[in-house]
Specification:
Length: about 100
């Protein structure tokens, strides 16, 4: 069983990948993006079931709200795609740095 910290780091890595793919050509990579979004959503739900507490909880709660919105959106215009991709990459960075607040 993977602990919450490792799952958060996996989520962060996927968010960064997804953001990069979307920024580099959403149309060409939309199937890969959809696959990784679904996989990442599964990881997010696993972490939610682990009931993250402590100093990381506010970060995870804020991330969860944004991720649900992003997961349900489909970037359509280049501007939307870039903003969507930037938000994914930003949360990837935030989660990577804040994961240290989780205890193993």
């Amino acid at each position: 069983m993977v602990d919450a910290k490792q799952q958060i780091l996996d989520i962060a890595m996927n968010l960064t990948r997804i953001g990069n793919w979307a920024a580099d050509g959403y149309e060409a990579k939309h199937k890969r993006i959809a696959t990784f979004l679904d996989q990442t959503n599964g990881y997010v739900e696993d972490v939610r079931q682990k009931n993250v507490t402590g100093r990381f909880k506010p970060t995870f709660d804020a991330f969860y709200q944004v991720f649900q919105k992003l997961h349900n959106e489909s970037p359509v215009t280049p501007t939307d795609t870039n903003a969507w991709a930037e938000t994914m990459m930003t949360w990837g960075n935030i989660l990577t740095h804040r994961a240290s607040l989780l205890e193993r």
